[in-house]
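Reproducibility note. Readers wishing to regenerate the assembly model reported in the main text can use the exact inputs given here. Chain order matters: entities are listed in the order in which they were concatenated for prediction.
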Amino acid sequence: MLRVNAELLREQTVAILRGWGMSAEHADITAARLAHADVRGIDSHGVALLLLYAEHQAKDWINFTPEITVLRQTPVITLLDGDHGLGHVPSTLAMQAAIDKCRISGLAASAVRHSNHYGAAGAYSLLAAEAGFIGMSFTSVWNSNIVPTFGAEPMFGTNPISVAAPGRNGVFYLDMATSTVAVGKVKLAAMHDKPMPEGWVLNAAGQPQTDAHAALREGIRLTPIGGNRTLGSHKGYGLACMVELLCSMLAGGWYAPTRAARGRREDPRPNIGHFFLVIDPAQFRAPGEFEHDLDDMLSALRQVPPSDAAQPVLVPGDTEAAAMRERLAEGIPLPDPLVQQLRQIATRCGAPVLL
Amino acid sequence: MLRVNAELLREQTVAILRGWGMSAEHADITAARLAHADVRGIDSHGVALLLLYAEHQAKDWINFTPEITVLRQTPVITLLDGDHGLGHVPSTLAMQAAIDKCRISGLAASAVRHSNHYGAAGAYSLLAAEAGFIGMSFTSVWNSNIVPTFGAEPMFGTNPISVAAPGRNGVFYLDMATSTVAVGKVKLAAMHDKPMPEGWVLNAAGQPQTDAHAALREGIRLTPIGGNRTLGSHKGYGLACMVELLCSMLAGGWYAPTRAARGRREDPRPNIGHFFLVIDPAQFRAPGEFEHDLDDMLSALRQVPPSDAAQPVLVPGDTEAAAMRERLAEGIPLPDPLVQQLRQIATRCGAPVLL
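Running the prediction on these inputs yields the following C-alpha cells for the assembly.
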C-alpha cells in the first residue's frame, strides 16, 4: 500500500489525461473532480476510475477534445452538450453556471447531455455548498445494474443522488447510489472469498444471490435500496427511476436498456445525462439562520444514544471529513495493484510515470 | 366494510372540516387533497387522517381560520406562512404558485412554514404533473419515528418524498416515506398478532424488534429505508436528513427533536414545513420528447421478465392508477371502525352525518 501525496496524484492524473489528448484546462478540472473523491476516502470514484476510462478510451467511447456547447440558457436554466467527452468538465461548467445564476435568481438548474462518467456525484453538489448554497447532483450511467422490484433483469445504473449544504461548522454531504451496495462491494466480497449478505444481489431468476463469484459470472444484478419488497426495495427502485427521469428523459441522455431497441445502435458511444439543482437558503431564511439550524440538527444527530457504544451516530459527510483530515496529512493510500495499473496506463499513453 | 361514493365521502369531509370552523373554500381544497389519497388506495392518507386531525384539534394545535400570508415572492420563489392551519391549503397555494411561475420561468420552488400535516405528499407533486411539469413535494412531520443509523432514538418523522411527471399515456407518480415501512404497517401487524420482519422496527436499545405489540408499547422506532447499515440504512437516513433540511432548515419549520431543548416549549403547536419544486421539461427537450421518453422507460420496465410469473414488474404509480379505476367505479371501501369514528367526529363537531 503506497501513500501518495494528493498533489502528486493530481499531477499523475493530469499527465494521463493529457496523454489521452485532453487539453491542459480540461485535464486540470477533471483531475480536481477525481481528487475530490480520493481525498475523501471515496476510493471507487477517484483515480481508480482511470482504469474504467482507459477501457472506454480503448473502445473509442470518449471524445478527449470535446467542443462543449450551450444548447439553452435562461436566467435560471442551462443546458450543455458535452460532445461525448468525459463528464467532469461539462458538469463543472453546468454546476458553475447554476451557482452563478443562483446568486441572482436564488434558484437554478443545469443539465448536460452527450456526456460520460462524471466521477463522484458529490464533487458537484459540494461546489454549490462551498458557494453557500444547497446543491444537488444526479447522473445516469452507461450500463445497467439495478433490477426493478419484482424483476429479474437490470434496468438502471447505480443512479446516484448527491445533496450538499453549508452549515456554520462544516457541510452536510450526502452522496449515495440508489442501489443497496455498489458494484465494488461485490468485487470485494469475491476477492476475499466471502459470501454476500442476502439483499445485495440477485441471480438471473431474480432470487437472492449470496455467492459473489457467481454474481460476477452471471452479470451483477444489484437490488435497489431496500433489498426486497418487504424491506422497501420499491422505494429504492422509485428513486432510481427519478434519477433516470432527470438525467435521461429531462436532460436528453439515452435510457440505456431501450437504446438498442430504439435504433440508436449505430453510435456505440454512451449518452449519459446529468442534472444539477442549486437553491439559495437566503431566499427563504434570514442570513445565517439556515446554517445555524442545519448545525443544530447535525449536532443533535451526533448526540443520539448509539445502539453500540463503540459506534457513535454519524451524519452524512462525517466519514468523508475524517478521511480528508487523515489523507491530507498522511497521503492517499493506493493499493499496489492500482499503482501498477496506473503506471501501465501512463506508459501506454506516453505520459510520465510519477507514482 | 362500507363502499362509499367518492363524492359523498368528499361531502362528509367538508362537513367535518366546516364543523371545526374551517371556511367553505379551505374545506373544499382540504377535502380534495384527502380524496386524492382515498381514490388512489392510499388509505393511510385519506379520510382516515381526520382521526389524527381530530386529536390535534382537541389539543388546540390547529388554527382552522388561518390567515395565510406571502412572506416572500420572486419570479421563481414563493414562501408562505400557514398560520398554523392544516397544511393542505397553503401547500395547494404554494404548489399552484410554483406551477404559475414555472409557466414563465421554467423552474420554480415554494416553501411553507408554520404548517401542519398536509396529507399525502403526492397530492401536490401530481398537481404539477397534471399541468405538464415535473413536480416534487417534501414535508417534515410533527413527531419523530425514524432512528438514524447506529442510533437508538427516533430523530425524524417519516419525511416523505414525492415526484410526479407527465408521460404521454399516464403519469409517473412516486410517493414514499424515507422509513422502511409506515407506522400503519406496525399497527396492522399488531392487529393481526403477527411478528414483523426483522428490519422494520428497532427496540429501545436500537436492536431489531419483531414484536409489534412491544413496538407500540415502547414507542415506534422505524428504521430508515435499508433497515440496517449492511443493507444501506445510512442512505434512507441521509434522505430523511435531506427532507428535514428542505422543510425545517430551508422552509423555516422547527426540527422536532431539538425544539424543546431550544426554548420553543411555550408554543405547543407544531411548526411543520413543506417544500415544493416544479420543472418544465420543455425548457430542456423539444415538445413531447420528455413525455415520449418517459413512456418508453415505463413500458420497458413493465416488460422486464419478472422473478415470479404471477407478479409483473410495476412502475411508480401503477398501483395507485389501478386502485383509482376500481374505486371510482365501485366506491371507496371504508372499514366499519373507521366509519364509526368518522360518524362520532361529525357528531362531536355538529356536522351532519352523511355516511
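We highlight two features of this model. Chain A is about 40% helix and 15% strand. The first helix of chain A runs from residue 6 to 19.
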